[in-house]
Amino acid sequence: MLALVDHDPGRLLGRTKNSTLRLAEDQRGLSFSIDIPDTQIGRDVLAMAERGDLGGASFGFRVPKGGDVWEGRNRTLIRVELIDVSAVIAFPAYPQTTVTARSQSDKALSLALAKRFLESI
Question: Rounded to whole angstroms, how far apart are CA atoms 31 and 24?
């Protein structure tokens, strides 16, 4: 699982396999935190988060067969295969999400993204 900027694999922020991306689920939905790398893209994203300039978050996912239910134009996702979580600069798929800078230390910069259900219509 990857943390990206605008779903762009060339703008990597973190990965679950080395624990620089951490995922959690609760009653509200999915949340994640990222140890932002000390790279140009990492510093740019952190600066935009601190200023409140980021648009929100988006989730890249696949829906396996039988993983969704349609009722008219409304879609309920029952099962998804999560591909990436992304900080989105301009137009997030989920504008209700927020992106905030949570803490900064000498070793790691962290970015916390608000909890949000995976929803689609």
Answer: 5
Q: Kindly list the domain boundaries of the chain, sorted by start residue.
A: 2-116
The pTM score is: 0.78
Give the integer Cα–Cα distance in Å for 77 and 64. Answer: 10
Tens digit of each residue's pLDDT, the chain (121 residues)? 999 999 999 999 999 999 999 998 877 778 888 988 989 999 999 889 888 898 888 999 999 999 999 999 999 989 999 999 999 999 988 888 877 887 655 334 444 444 333 333 3
| Residues 20 and 109: beta-carbon distance below 8 Å | no
Contact 7, 92 (CB under 8 A): no
